[in-house]
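Need tokens for this chain, all 936 residues.
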Amino acid sequence: MAQPVDRRVFLRATALAAAAPLVGSTVVGRASAAPVAAAGSGAALPPPAAWRVRPFALDQVALGNSVFAAKRDLMLDYGRGYDVDRLLQVFRANTGLSTRGAVAPGGWEGLDGEANGNLRGHYTGHFLTMLSQAYAGTGDEVYADKIRYAVGALVEVREALQGDPVLRAVPGKFGTAVENPRGSHQIFDLPSTVLAGSPAVTISVWVKPEHDSMWARVFDFGNDVSRYMFLTIRSHLNRPRFAITPNGPGAEQVIDGDAPLPVGQWSHLAVTIEGGTGSLYVNGTRVGVNRNMTHTPAALGALRNHWLGNSQFPSDPVFAGAFDQVDIWSRALGADEIAALQHTPARGDLASYSFDETGGATIADASGRGQHATFKRTWGRPSHPGFLAAYPETQFITLESMTAGNYFVVWAPYYTAHKILRGLLDAYLNTGDERALDLAGGLCDWMHSRLSKLPEATLQRMWGIFSSGEFGGIVEAICDLHAITGKAEHLELARLFDLDRLIDSCAAGTDILDGLHANQHIPILTGMVRLHDETGEQRYLTAARKFWDMVVPTRMYSIGGTSTAEFWRARGSIVGTLSETNAETCCAYNMLKLSRVLFFHEQDPKYMDYYERALYNQVLGSKQDRADAEKPLVTYFIGLQPGHVRDYTPKAGTTCCEGTGMESATKYQDSVYFAKADGSALYVNLYSASTLKWADKGVTVTQTTNYPIEQGSTIGVHGGGRFDLHLRVPGWAGSDFRVEVNGERVPRAAVPGSYFTLSRTWRSGDTVRVSIPFRLRVERALDDPATQTLFYGPVNLAARDARRTFLEFGLYRNAGLSGDLLPSLTPVAGEPLHHVLDGVEFAPFFEGTEDPTHVYFHRREPLIAFGGRDSGVANPSRGDGTTFLDEVWAAAPFRGKGHLVQHVRATADTWVSAGLLTADDARKVVSTAQDATYAA
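Here are the structure tokens for all 936 residues:
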């Protein structure tokens, strides 16, 4: 495993940005009327006419050396090296195709993960998007090759799903055997006459289990869960069991084995029943006996199902492994006869299957009775040829009748469909692979064929179900597909996902978010914006705008994240929700997408202020700063309780947040620049080392900066032409935000939370210098002003300390005339953005370390002090918690010391008049302010 990246090296490397060349894409972006071209051989996604500004494609913006490039490169290495066959394993297994020896990733992307892997397939979609973005951003063909390979495999999977499963021959105990890979949902269906009504029986089977799944059946002959007889390789006692009953589980007569059956080895199992005695044999040895068997196969009557590998109980797993030499006799074989079967097969008189077939779907019976078996899926064939998934269509079918969520039964199948659809669309848009578009179109055609037949009430119920009914950003993806195909059914499909209760409430400004699952609902509103784009229906856009304001800032943590334990609580509840499970990483990812698409409609700087906050803090900080070949190393939750240590290998792995984390790390540059739809203006939204190739204008724009270590950026223009340059003035910026063009200051005041516009005819070589002096400031929690967090410019600083209780700090003691609190802290030499306060180190939240952190702390200013001098007077407070010093420094910046002293005197007089400060104490306070020395 690679060694962690030393944070000094990690940050110091970014300081070379001014001198080092930018890392550019080798793919030439296609010229178009709007800056939306996809990479090289890809296909352009037409921009909606409703967008007033439009993004540039990833291949048109190249990242320079920076903290973003360093984190991106870690993810690129992961994507370059990871074996795609592992991701395809669950798709191939579901189809019965060869898995080529690959091992599924595990976690949520495998059958042993959470909820039995009922979300499997989603991570493959994320991975396709990550590869597509990596290819667009770098032009490295290794990513395109992986995409084409994966798409080709998914084509094979879809084709295989349309036909009957095909037997897969493998070496057996005697000659050949037939393998049933885990996750395939394939079984052997024997004729209903196979037992011939015999009261006595011997069933002999050779099996090689691939997995020791509890209650997986070797055979199960029955009608339902009331009449059956079965043999399982593993009961709740962790050993084989035979059971027979004419009246449900309570009437079962059983025979238990004495030891677990080994996995990956051939074992012989035999069950005999005759004359009231039942015996269970393992590898020729009788390991269990029941001498009081009153149930016989004949007593069960006519049975409907005679299965090898499947259970009458739908929740039981399908047997995974290989079958060889299955024989059924109409009598109980003796112990010597059973022992002889270990070396020499014998032919059953009721049925005999040697599994010598190497293809097809029929297993021949050699008994002479013609009891040929059929190899089939438990769920048959898909209802439409466009179906594509890593599990049966039954997940979707079952959801249609559910009234409450249960992810052990159904876990968000349309959410998984979205990830696959999005990955295929991105593959098409970035490589031009028409097969990917065909798969995406087919998937949507299948969804339309299912959902268009359902009553409106059923759809509303489905989409309102927690977890099981979650569908992610599927509406956005379908609208993107519609923009490509123009197919009416695709737009109709997108509208079938309307969740009216959410949309109508948000459009009316009614906040119903308390108690809702955050990440289930955020992407719905992004989809609604795209539906507005495609339909012109205003309520969709109105709902999204008002929804955004319900989250920011009222349910937003300082790092830009939202949610606690995945859910929203009441507006303004911040400190009251701090826990180990705050800020699900997917929520930040989706809030960025929503903010971005809202900005396309309305260029309100608040959307980009939020974008900077969440991107530079939570999103960057969610990626660990070290390499790993097996995992993307991205957080799920980011706990904001004191002393929390980030977990970059969450749950069992391959989670939704690791998926979105892969995507985020390969598209950091997607919102640095936007262009006005008519090409008359360029928006610089983020200060980030980068190069933009604006093909329509014949202009290249280069940012040279080490932001956010450097407090500003130098923007170079190469090529000429007239356009407005809109420079974002962050909402946290001060009055000293400054812009110079070719070395001359632009004599105009900048307004924080706006855009500073330069209108001119640009010439090649023009240079714009943007200076954004940082100040240390606090943000107060909405529900407890004394609980605060530190920001230095855009960077949230977190204390690193193992204590699990809130730390207490004072900050006014050395505050500067500007109001900057930084003089109260001591910088750490050689560690950019690191400072020490009262012996505790503060560091940028974006550093992906495993240090215990305190994002929030308790503010305590017990004494009134100025310029490092104590007045000896207690710092009084008003009823709302505002202290004397709060009121003084709220008026910063001050023109000079005299201005500050004058304000201190006026404030003291007010507090004396209010009975909150004595006249004597007021004189001491003013005297201290006069005697102090202040930093600027």
